[in-house]
Amino acid sequence: MTDNARDVLIATVYNGLKEVSELLEPISNGLSSVTSDLRVEENEEVFRNLANWLKALQSIYNFANELSRALDYLKKMDCSFSEDYSVLWKESHGIIENMLNAFEAKDWVTVCDLIEYEVVPLLSKGRESFKRLEEELLALKGQG
């Protein structure tokens, strides 16, 4: 691939990363809010809100997977990064599996605990990680 392709990929990843980074806090806040509601009552509206926030969380995971693939391509184009930005998301797949098991068992206390003590902190760490990657991508854009 040419330098132009490298520059386009860097710019595309950077722009996507900026957009998704801005979504992490609202998703985190939404999940926190819905878990507070679920701890009080189980009704259709609470479950609908929970489903919507979990879809948003799934979108973040999908983005993280695509981001990992894009960074692999950039590494093949002789771009280097100071850390493995995909490791945080890969290591967290167990959280999602535990949530699915709790859902199947209708164990709402565990679902709420996992969101509050695992997912919300993960999103905070993810946001910090995305910010560091944004800085590295900006530096790479400057080299182009």
Please write out the topology.
Layout: H1 3-40, H2 44-76, H3 87-91, H4 93-104, H5 108-143
Helix pairs in contact: 1-2, 1-5, 4-5
Tell me what you see in this structure:
By secondary structure, the chain is mainly α. It has one domain (3-143). Helix content is 86%, strand content 0%. It contains 5 helices and no strands. The chain is elongated and about 55 Å long. The model has no long low-confidence stretch (mean pLDDT 92).
Summarize the structure.
With 144 residues, the protein is mainly alpha-helical.
Helical segment tally? 5
> Approximately how much helix is present in the residues?
over 70%
Helix-strand pattern? HHHHH
Q: Count structural domains.
A: 1
Low-confidence stretches: none
**How big a fraction of the residues is strand?**
under 5%
Could you tell me how far the N terminus lies from the C terminus, measured between alpha carbons in angstroms?
Answer: 14 Å
Structural class: mainly alpha
Write down the overall geometry: elongated
Q: Radius of gyration from the CA trace?
A: 17 Å
Question: How confident overall, as mean pLDDT?
Answer: 92
- State the total count of DSSP E strands: 0
How does the major sheet shape up? none
List its traits.
144 residues, 86% helix, 5 helices, mainly alpha, single chain
